Amino acid sequence: MSSIPAPSRWSKAARRLLIVPLAMIVAAGATGADAATAPAPAPKAATPDRLSYDVSLRGDADGSHWTGRQRVSFRNASDQPLREVYVRLWGNGDDKCGTPDKPSPVKVSKVLGGTAGRLTVNCTALRITLPKPLARGGRTAVSFDVSITVPRRNDRFGREGAFRFLGNALPVLAVHDAKGWHLDPYVSTGESFYTLASDFRVRIDHPSALKVPATGRTWTRRGKPGRTVTHSVAHRVRDLAWAAGPFRTAMETSPGGVRVKSYWAPNTPAAGVRLNRKDGVAAVDRFGREFGRYPYGEIDLVMTKEFGGGMEYPGLVILGTSEEGGAVVHEVAHQWWYGIVGNDEYGAPWLDESFAQYANARFYGWDTRTCWSDVDWPDEGTALTNSMAYWAKHPGEYHLVYTAGSCALATLERTIGAGAMARLLKRYAHDHWYGVSTTADFKKAAQSVTDKDLAAFWKKHRIR
């Protein structure tokens, strides 16, 4: 958890806000079957799709342990029968399979709707074999008990003092596309996550002393004595995260009609909280104008003093906050670049991180006219479009996804013109809304808005 070194000519504000999200330092595929031709192409539809999660959880006295039941229904969008699904237990990523005295933090048991196999990929993947092959267009469901223990580390799935962060804690289904099942390993230096837009309906029973911000539109009801039930409903999101703790809270509605709810630990610098709230409200409206209206109605800003950088989830971002604020604009930009316009975060991390940082740079008006001269590529094998398999082996180079990536997009803007770039991004977001984008998709879309041959541009900026 640290900041990326920023080019020296950028302003102090720019250097402060060029923060790698908490994951600092999967998955491209088609969103539907390609149009039929003769002969028919190989099936490319990402599946299982049209997922619907129903979850009921109960937290203990301080939000460190959660138990409950989870059900997920889904459809087979592929031309091939679906014989199994995989549940990703990303919360086990850092601890892997644990030890006898310190077991994995996320456990699944009592599986119905299929036969559970053994945990694989360092206990982050569970295969469930369906009772019978699910034909194209068919729908079924699996359900299971879930137990979640928040690790004792300050992380996206972790804790800080009395506050708990439950990012990537809830098990989700893996995706199968033209590349097969995406069962990539967990990486702490970035994101490995690849999910399709899904619906979530979640009931979180917790002590009334705890506030629980969560993905989606939330409301509370009185529970049993001393307890409150927070309900969350989220449509067409890729994950669901929540936090818990004795937060202070505030709520405001942006001029564009988005409800921005702020949650912060009492020791968080007040000036930073105010700045995050101000910039968060402005960013959600600005990016709505630039990329398409924010569709979820609500976004939660969760702020603490010691959290490293920031981390994005649909409708919820976690922000380390100093007197100078935090990475709120970058994280809000992720609501579009990864959240609404999905991508394989393991296979092509630049598609969300570079795009979010480019939006961040434009928001703050950074001077990027000569930023490319500061890019130092270690060797010819380093490309902006490398996967997390490469960056995990070269963590000291991962900042290039943010610095070189945002700079490349700024240079593309100057190459094709500001108006063409604005039209490109808005149209590109529209064409991939709730879908999945790829590098090839973006290169094709960019070329379509200009008469200039961009081949030399892609080569120079290592967009391969």
From TrEMBL:
What Pfam families does the annotation carry?
Peptidase_M1
Is Signal set as a keyword in this record? yes
As one GO molecular function, the record gives: metallopeptidase activity
The residues the entry assigns to the signal sequence are 1-35
The cross-references to InterPro entries, in alphabetical order and at most eight, read: M1_LTA4H, Peptidase_M1_dom, Peptidase_M4/M1_CTD_sf
- Cofactor(s) needed by this chain: Zn(2+)
Residue ranges constituting the Peptidase M1 membrane alanine aminopeptidase domain according to the UniProt record: 293-460
Q: Which UniProt keywords apply?
A: Metal-binding, Signal, Zinc
Name of the protein described by the UniProt record: Metallopeptidase
Organism encoding this protein: Streptomyces capoamus
